Amino acid sequence: MDTQTGRQDAAEHFDFLIIGAGISGIGAAWHLRRRFPASRFAVLDAMDGFGGTWWTHRYPGARSDSDLYTYGYGFKPWRGRSIATAEEIRRYLGEVIEENELAPHIRYGHKVTAADWSSQQRRWTLEVARKAAGDTVTITAGMLWMCSGYYDHGKGHTPQWPGMQDFKGQVVHPQHWPQDLDCTGKRVVVIGSGATAATLIPALADDAAHVTMLQRSPTFFSAEPWSHPLEAPLRALDLPEDWMHEILRRAHIAKSAEVVRMSFEQPEDLRQFLLEQARSRLPGDFDVDKHFNPRYRPWQQRVAVVPDGDLFTAIGGGKASVVTDTIECFDDTGIRLSSGEHLDADIVVTATGFNMRFFGGVPFRVDGAPVDFTQRVTYRGLMIEGVPNMVYTLGYFRASWTLRSDLVCDLVCRVIAHMRQHGLTMVEPALRASDAGMPRLPWMDATNFNAGYVMRAQHHLFRQGDRAPWTHQMEYAEERSILPAVQPDDEALRYR
To answer: Model-level pTM?
Structure first.
């Protein structure tokens, strides 16, 4: 070890390095271990444990917003309710790690701070800060698999309002929830109305004096059962677990596909269905159109799930309320709204979303040149034009993340197998002659999906083209047949 620089003398080398030990990284590790058992690989994660989002999100009531029969892996049956708590999901991921002996391959507290590709050496060189040792080491790899998702786990998104410094109470972001925070008997204002707010409010309502959901504009909510209606009758048949998993997985996929279809083809019918769900669970004098009828079409932003309508139950029971207004300023006792109304608060929760950060915020270089991702397009939502031997996993917005993760893992492993079969050491997506002059479009088309966290981040995200294979963010109904049909000798992939 060089004591002056804190760097090791010889770099440790792996065939594959996976960055991120969340649901994507654990899934990638399972696939690599199964398909290439003789290869050396490691999983690096900056945090102190596995789970990614499920490690970070420890606020009251934290749970899935997708059903676990599709959010769980295709290779491991889910055995619980369709909607699961964060603790249940972490337990499931822990079982995958234990059952497949992945723990020796995972290194926690390892934060990648730089990634450099050398075409001459055919390898990535990573600078990695080790939390426990307090030093920096160099690790090299033949292929890099980015599974860090798109959350900035270090800092949630919190707007700055006038007067926040004058507030005498406590301001908390759900992503950084203090484990000793006691809301019992407190007046709580939750700013925001997305999936996190919809989770928090029912969890806090029983003990808090009152919980107010303060939203600038409405969100669509869907009241879904904790368990699929088919689950109880199927369990009565004493079916094998893998049968149960597959049947319920298909049932959830079919339902999700129908909702997505309606969001494009019959958006007003879907709107009325969601509004009627709310009306049937709320008092007759509640203004559903004001508080739960967004300007955008359903699924142009996420439809937040409320298990068994628990959010509506809290509101109907008087333990929670909804205010649709904008913030003028904070003062020492709460929040003053543009309408003149004042919300008294002891605790303010800023459930105002997160910041997007792809590839863990790692600076990349290829043959000494910094990579400006905003000038490059994606290849099928899993590789980047001109960046060799680097793949990444991103899931769906309208379907479970892991449905796409499984598809990406299959295609990546087929590409690796192709390289090994033909003695190839380098692969990168490259534009074809027919792609000359192709426009470089934003990462996301706002008419397709325009959530605030996406729109805020567009300027520093990579791009997409106007044709295959340079597009992404398709629906599962399309990609479940498209990605398995992609051949590793695709003309847009250049091998050496």
So the answer is: 0.95
